[in-house]
Amino acid sequence: MRVVYSPLHLAHDITVQTFMGVQVPADEVADRAERIRDALIDDGGFGLVEPADHGDGPITAVHDPGLLAFLREAWPEAQRQRHPYPALVPETINSVHLTEGMDRRFLRESPKIEGRAGFYALDTSSPIVAGTYVAARAAVDVALTAVDLVLAGERAAYGLCRPPGHHAARSMYAGFCYFNNAAIAAQAIAEATGEHVSILDVDYHHGNGTEQIFWRRGDVLYVSLHAHPDRQYPFVLGWEDETGEGPGVGANLNIPLPAGVSDEGYLAALERGLDRIADEPGSVIVVSLGFDTYGLDPIGDFALTTGVYHEVGRRVAALGKRLLILQEGGYYLPALGENARAWLRGAEGRPHDPAPAPASGLGARGLRG
Ligand SMILES: [Zn+2]
Fold this sequence. Notes:
- This protein is an alpha/beta fold and 369 residues long.
- The chain is built from 10 helices and 10 strands.
- It has an 8-stranded parallel beta sheet, sandwiched between helices.
- α3 (65-80) packs antiparallel against α4 (113-120) and α8 runs parallel beside α9 (306-317).
- The radius of gyration is 19 Å and the shape is globular.
- The two termini are 32 Å apart.
- The structure holds zinc ion.
- Zinc ion binds next to loops.
């Protein structure tokens, strides 16, 4: 399988994040993508491909041009305004109650950069640094280059996207995500093929951004297995009764899961999702692939093991559609590469063949953060 990877993700050099008002070591660090890349190179069965520039068009096909302009201008503008901190984090966040009963046009984008950030942000855990825009754009090109491979006839392609994307909505960045790589890719596939597209989101979190972008679309099916919003980010979306509106009625399937879900429980839920996708027309599945479902993940509370990722990859591929697989979350660094390798080998029909575990259990580079 070909793996699209760009070293430009390293420019999004994040070391701390603001979590519940406190600065803590960042989870979404550059080493995540490097670990996966290294494991796939060591495997020997994957070929690395550099992404090609696809321009603004595919981004504004699903995102507000205002969000694109903000992300492009945010850091240079912060410098011009002599922003005093090493990362741009919004000072305010727009509450849904802010303009209740008022015309939406009175909700305005301030030129002041920490206010402008709050116009587009959902939370404080998605810092913007000097290289964020370059990296986020590269992640989109990684996804779109993987789309090109699949549309050219490859059975499957993997885009090693970083930063991830599924929390980014049409006009909003959130949850370590700036552009919604999977939504941009699904839209590009829908436009190129004229077919329906299915998105399977197996990240630990609900992909609120992907759900929102395709909420009223009947031609893009969104199926998500995730931690129940009763206890986990993004908290306000991800319930089972969110099934779409207008032409999108029935094209959104949320499967929220309890804490501690086992390999067996997860595979049972996966079958529900795959049954729905099997009924959908279209020849391509976009997979939002997260490993924060892993038992040792510092953010998640599922109990999945490396072996189940191989089985999930195998079962998704067994639907017989082409696969565009895009990286989302996953924050337990020592197992990240092996989990990705297992999933992708499963999707290729290769046996799991586990790599020998590092003697320390922490991997060659040790834990970071
Ligand atoms: Zn996640």
